[in-house]
Amino acid sequence: MSKITSVTPDALQYILANLRPEDKEEIEAVRGEGFDSMKLALQFCQLALTLDGWIFWRGDTGEPSAVLGAYAMTPVVAGCWAFGTTSWPQVVRGVTRHARRVMVPALLKAGFHRAECRALAKREDTRIWLTSLGWKAEAALSEFGIRHEDFTLFAWLADEQTDHPRQS
C-alpha cells in the first residue's frame, strides 16, 4: 500500500533526480539536458500551489515514486503533469485512481472546463494511460522540443467527463 501526500520540494527533487528514462527524456526535451532537479522541483511546487499536487510514496520502500499535479493556465483551463521514478509501475494504479477520484472532480468543482498536457509523440505508454483517463490527442506539436522532438497535445473537456458531471 502506498501513501499520498502533498507536494514537497524534497520529495519532488528525489523523483526528478531518479526519473525513469522515458520521463527524463521527455523533461529534457523541454528543459534541456542536465536540468537542475532542485530548481525544477521548486518550479513544480510553485505550479502546484495554484491548484494542487500529490506525491505517491511506495509502501514497501517508503520512497517517493511519482507525482501528479495541475496548475491554472487560465481561469478555466488547467495544465496537468505526471512523472515518476522506476517505481512508477508499483504506484501507477494509485495515481490513476487518484486522478479519477480526486483530481478530475476537484478541477470540475473549481470551474475548469478543460485540462491539457503535452507528451513526447513517441510515448505510446503515455497515450494509453491518458486515453484510459478520458483524454484525447488533440494536436501534433511538430518540433516542440529543444532538439526538434515532436509532442502531442492531449486534453479533456468537462462535458466529456461522464463519470463526473460538470460542477457549474
Helix-strand blueprint:
Layout: E1 3-6, H1 9-17, H2 21-31, H3 37-50, E2 52-57, E3 64-72, E4 77-84, H4 88-109, E5 114-120, H5 124-132, E6 136-141, E7 151-157
Write up this protein:
With 168 residues, this protein is of the alpha+beta class. It has one domain: Aminopeptidase (3-Layer(aba) Sandwich), CATH 3.40.630. The chain has helices at residues 9-17, 21-31, 37-50, 88-109, 124-132; strands at residues 3-6, 52-57, 64-72, 77-84, 114-120, 136-141, 151-157. Strands 1-2-3-4-5-7-6 form a 7-stranded mixed beta sheet, with helices on both faces. Strand 4 (77-84), helix 4 and strand 5 (114-120) form a beta-alpha-beta unit. The longest helix is centred in the middle third of the chain and has 22 residues, at 88-109. The chain starts with a strand and ends in an 11-residue tail after the last strand.
Give keywords:
alpha+beta, globular, 5 helices, 168 residues, Aminopeptidase
Describe the structure concisely.
By secondary structure, the protein is α+β, with helices and mostly antiparallel strands. 39% of the residues lie in helices and 28% in strands.
Number of strands: 7
Structural class: alpha+beta
Tell the overall outline.
globular
Radius of gyration: 15 Å
CATH topology: Aminopeptidase
Overall CATH architecture: 3-Layer(aba) Sandwich
**Uncertain runs:** none
**pLDDT averaged residue by residue:** 90
H/E element order: EHHHEEEHEHEE
Query: Helix count, per DSSP?
Result: 5
CATH class: Alpha Beta
Q: Which strands sit side by side, in order, in the main sheet?
A: 1-2-3-4-5-7-6
Alpha-carbon distance between the termini?
Answer: 35 Å
Specify the CATH homologous superfamily: Gcn5-related N-acetyltransferase (GNAT)
The domain count comes to 1
Strand percentage lies at 25-35%
Largest sheet: 7 strands, mixed
- Percent helix: 25-40%
